[in-house]
């Protein structure tokens, strides 16, 4: 289970955890979150969002937003993903998330193996969402926000099953892509979508 060990290494000062959701899907934006937790008032049960049920994530999202010192969200659009590529669009979303924090942080812990080119001292933590409570909290906020975006988009584009697959390349999604073609929310720089555009 994640703990505060990584955060404590980088004190004194406020430490933010950052994570993203939506690097792999064929459609929709990439969403990042940044969270500065209160160590004395941390919600129980924080973990990698992928290891939690949807019901548990929803409960924890509310607790994180209510009890964290501060939190922020950052989004990179489909157009930015296609222009920059998914890696740099993810870095942009992470930067926007940290910029959205109401408090200035002294250090940022980033899930993954590299940090954005930004002004904050930072450390990349591989599998950080399973190791660091701040990153785990960020993973929950990012996933919940992106899931809401894709569920709303599913109402406008009902053929693709986004309410369940959230834009990932499921069998239903791929069949709908072949039958109906890409929407404005599809990432044209991603191979399965680009190949269909060539047909």
TrEMBL record:
Q: Which domain of life is it from?
A: Bacteria
Q: Its Gene Ontology molecular function terms? A: manganese ion binding; RNA binding; RNA-DNA hybrid ribonuclease activity
Catalytic activity line of the entry: Endonucleolytic cleavage to 5'-phosphomonoester
Q: Which InterPro entries match?
A: RNase_HII, RNase_HII/HIII, RNase_HII/HIII_dom, RNaseH-like_sf, RNaseH_sf
Q: Name one GO cellular component term.
A: cytoplasm
Q: Which Pfam families does the record match to this protein?
A: RNase_HII
Q: What protein family does this chain belong to?
A: Belongs to the RNase HII family.
| Alphabetical list of HAMAP family matching this protein | RNase_HII_B
Mind telling me what this protein is named?
Answer: Ribonuclease HII
């Amino acid at each position: 289970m994640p703990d505060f060990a990584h955060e404590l290494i980088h004190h004194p000062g406020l430490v933010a955890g950052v994570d993203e959701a939506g690097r792999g899907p064929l459609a929709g934006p990439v969403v990042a979150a940044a969270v500065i937790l209160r160590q004395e008032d941390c919600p129980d049960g924080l973990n990698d969002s992928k290891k939690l049920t949807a019901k548990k994530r929803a409960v924890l999202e509310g607790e994180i937003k209510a009890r964290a010192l501060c939190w922020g969200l950052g989004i990179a659009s489909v157009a930015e993903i296609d222009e920059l590529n998914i890696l740099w669009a993810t870095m942009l979303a992470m930067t926007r998330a940290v910029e959205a924090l109401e408090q200035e942080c002294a250090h940022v812990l980033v899930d993954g193996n590299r940090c954005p080119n930004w002004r904050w001292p930072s450390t990349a933590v591989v599998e950080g969402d399973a190791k660091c409570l701040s990153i785990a909290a960020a993973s929950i906020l990012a996933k919940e926000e992106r899931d809401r975006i894709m569920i709303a988009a599913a109402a406008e584009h009902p053929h693709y099953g986004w309410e369940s697959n959230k834009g990932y390349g499921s069998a239903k999604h791929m069949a709908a892509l072949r039958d109906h073609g890409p929407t404005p929310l599809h990432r044209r720089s991603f191979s399965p979508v680009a190949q269909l555009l060539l047909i």
